[in-house]
Amino acid sequence: MPPAFGAANVGNGLPLTPDQRHALLLAGGASPSPASFQQPRDVARQPQTAEQQYPLSSSIADWVQNATGWRPGTTPSWVPQGLRDLSASNTAFQQQTMQDLGSLGRYTSMSPRDLEIAMGLGMGGEGPGETPGIGHNLPPEKVPGINDLTNPLPYPEDYQAGIERGVKRRDLDVSKSRGEATNPATELAPGVYVGDVNTDQWIQRTEHHLTPDEIAQARNWYKDALPAYQKYFGQEDAPAHMGAWLIANRNVDPAGAQLNAMRVAEQQANLTGQFSPQKQGGLADAVLRQYWGAVRGGDTSGLARLGGQKIYDFIDSALGKDTRTFYGDDPRMGSPAVADVHSLRDMGHIDDPTINWVRQKYGDDAANQLQKSFGGSPSEAQYEWSADKMRRITDELNQRNYMGDGWTPSEVQATGWMTMSRQLGRAGQTAEQAIQAHTRNVSAELDFGKGAPYHDTFPDWKTLTPDQKYQVTQEVMPQIGDFARRVTGVQGGQTNVGLGGWGSDINPSMKSRLIASPEVAQDYANVLGHLAQQTEVFGYRPAPNGPALGVGIHGEGLQDPANVTKLWTAFTAKHPDLAAGFSPSIHPDGTHGIEMLFDKGGTVMKKRIESEVIPSLHEILQDQGVEGHIQGFQAEKTRTGHDWQADPTGGSYLARLGQRYGPDLPNRLELYRKEQLEPAIRQAIDRAKAGSSPGTPPEAGPQQITPSTAPDLGAVSRRPPQSRRGLPTVPVGAPLGTGMARAGLKQQQ
Questions:
Q1: Cβ 464 vs Cβ 685: under 8 Å
Q2: Does the pLDDT at position 302 exceed 90?
């Protein structure tokens, strides 16, 4: 306990003043009998009298915790035993403390030293040999970025020492190593440079590999990254997912890093690693597990050791900050500029992959002139030298008004990253492209499979009209999807309820557009198939070289089920041999539509789609007066299923899930089925038959709604963002997607 507290009347036998009782309560020393008094900060937020409507500032409690080491609800060791007994047994003390709580609000705007004086707690000295007062050891307040968002990572405990090292390095004699590149700039071909380039050479190389539009796009890489992660993982979780993505960038492309980061997050949510060996998160697996454990455990104090400057600067760059959290936001350390392996190469450092590339492209003589200057992770000096150079290039670009001024170090870094990726023959990817690479689509309906027990449990299902079945599907299927996400640990996703069909059959369907690993997407399909009692559940992932072929049709008016029915009926009449399946879809621009996925692939089928299918669809849309756009795509299909006639328990689904989730999962599914799902189906059917609905439908179009509402036909159904930790949702404008589900002899996409 700092002497500043010791100067008060605590423990010296003198009566306690109201202010000292406040201080004791803040420290958790008072432990009155009412249960509500066990958490002082919560009590202080309870309404008092009209003149005492002051909420207790959590910031005061926070800095007192940091300054003294106490935790709410505990009695610190520095509180004398006599006072502990008093606080625990003296009813008058407890009552008086309750009365004093309301006046705490007047302290909320005081500095720590002013608060010491007001509370009569004594003042910590600042001279030689004196003990600092309350709050002397608190870090500075973090500098926010865009939208007042702050970096979720803590200030490193030794950030001041890092600043001192950085300042000293800049003052070193040029004969001493400061982390600089050791290879002079070498032009291998016109516009192709390696080594320590100057700004002119940097510009030549950039313009050789990137068009002006590509340079402009690269400059916006960080500006677009945070919105992309917010779009797919929610406002609150976006920085954490971006941080995991950066940590995972070890000898893998951005899409691979996203898969590794997401895979570890899924496993920590679904606990599958406790029951069977699971795929790992690449070379960064161990670090990713520490990272997600810290983030989800609420204690990020140890994260400073996981990624060094890189992870901090990456998040700061995405937040558009001018200072660096890694160095306590001290302006002397400049603006963030991530010095990853690509940026180190861009600034002039040479590693083995660069030498191997030069040898392969330009021969042994050119490669032998180069000397390796780094490998793996850079040293602190190399990182900071490279970041400083990016800041110098930034200043020169702005002085020249190159492609318009306003360059930032993070824009220089992103442009260099895209340039070096292109130069070494590797594809640069944006954050959204990395996320979209793992969009996996699963579709299912509530029309039970052949032989499924629910035909007997809900015999009136088959008597419902199409509109009534649609209403029941809208109510029930999103609830099943929500439960499946919780079980499987899906990190991002969206459900879209609309019409789907197979052949001439059309039924209401729910498409789940998941941001997930392939194994978790398949788990999700198995949970959906088991609970909705489907014979087969189909899905697909967009893939440029996928063997499956499909067509997306989106246009104004296709949110109307009647128009969708007319479109599909007209298409199947013209092309009965191509009437595979379709599912509801929402284009990234928010336009409703459908997506078809054909049984056949190959060059012949691709030509037929281009020459027959797409022109025919244009004619049908024109006849219906619908303005739309049609686009073909390739994909990888997946499927899972069960024969309910042979086994009414759904054993095939359970067996697949049990291999990954252990023997207790069937009990969990059975409990959910009996206590929640079956009552929900029963109530939804009864409401549909009675002509009532559980809520007021929103306007047609992409809407954020909860599973308990009854939106109009074609609306989007999804959980509110951040309704559960680790299970954020994807906004409506996600990539094109489709999938199929078969019930009995019918296949629904």
A1: yes
A2: no
Contact between 414 and 219 under an 8 Å Cβ cutoff? The reply is yes
Residue type, 150: T
Please give the DSSP secondary-structure letter assigned to residue 45: T
Residue 734: pLDDT band by 50, 70, 90 thresholds? very low
CB 28 within 8 A of CB 35: no
- Tokens 């459900």 sit on residue: 495
**DSSP letters for 292-335:** HHHHHHT--TTTHHHHHHHHHHHHHHHTT-SS-GGGTT-GGG-S
Contact status, residue 738 vs residue 443, Cβ threshold 8 Å: yes
- The closest of 196, 50, 248, 743 to 449, measured between CA atoms, is 743
| Backbone dihedral angles phi then psi of residue 222, each to the nearest 5 degrees | -75, -35
* Least reliable range by pLDDT among 301-305, 319-323, 676-680: 301-305
pLDDT band at 349 (very low <50, low <70, confident <90, very high): very high
The residue behind tokens 């042994």 is 364
Look up residue 112 and give its amino acid: P
- Structure-block tokens of residue 248: 């995972």
**pLDDT tens per residue across span 556-576:** 889 888 899 999 999 999 988
* SS3 readout for 332-387: HHCCCCCCCHHHHHHHCCCCHHHHHHHHHHHCHHHHHCCCCCCCCCCCHHHHHHHH
Q: How far is CA 741 from CA 174, 472, 536, in A?
A: 68, 17, 6
**Closest listed residue to residue 415, CA positions, set 618, 209, 590:** 209
Residues 171-227: tens digit of each pLDDT: 876 656 789 999 999 999 999 999 999 999 999 999 999 999 999 999 999 999 888
The CB density around residue 422, as the number of other CB atoms within 10 Å, is 18
Query: Residue holding tokens 């909320």?
Result: 108
Output b/e per residue, 599-612; b: 16+ Cβ within 10 A: eebeeebeebbeee
- Return d(Cα 130, Cα 118) in angstroms, integer: 20
Q: Is the dihedral of CA 395, 401, 407, 409 positive or negative?
A: negative
> CA 581, CA 562: separation in Å to the nearest integer?
17
Distance CA 722, CA 738 (A): 25
User: Counting beta carbons within 10 angstroms of the beta carbon of residue 733, is it exposed (0 to 12), middle (13 to 18) or buried (19 or more)?
Assistant: middle
Count CA atoms closer than 13 A to 14's CA, side-chain side: 10
- CA-to-CA distance for 78 and 252, rounded, in angstroms? 53
Give yes or no for a contact between 144 and 151, defined as CB atoms under 8 angstroms apart. Answer: no
Task: Tell me the C-alpha distance between 576 and 726, whole Å.
Answer: 44
**Residues 6 or more apart whose Cβ sits within 8 Å of residue 702:** 586, 590, 592, 715, 716, 732, 733
Q: Is 510 helix (H, G, I), strand (E, B) or coil?
A: strand
Q: Could you say which DSSP state residue 603 is in?
A: H
Per-residue pLDDT band for 49 (boundaries 50, 70, 90) equals very low
Query: In terms of C-beta density within 10 A (0-12 exposed, 13-18 middle, 19 or more buried), how is residue 262 classed?
Result: buried
Q: Yes or no: say if 336 and 180 are a contact pair by the CB < 8 Å rule.
A: no
Cα–Cα distances (Å) from 540 to 222, 271, 476, 546, 597, in that order, read 30, 25, 23, 10, 9
**513 with 493: CB under 8 angstroms?**
yes
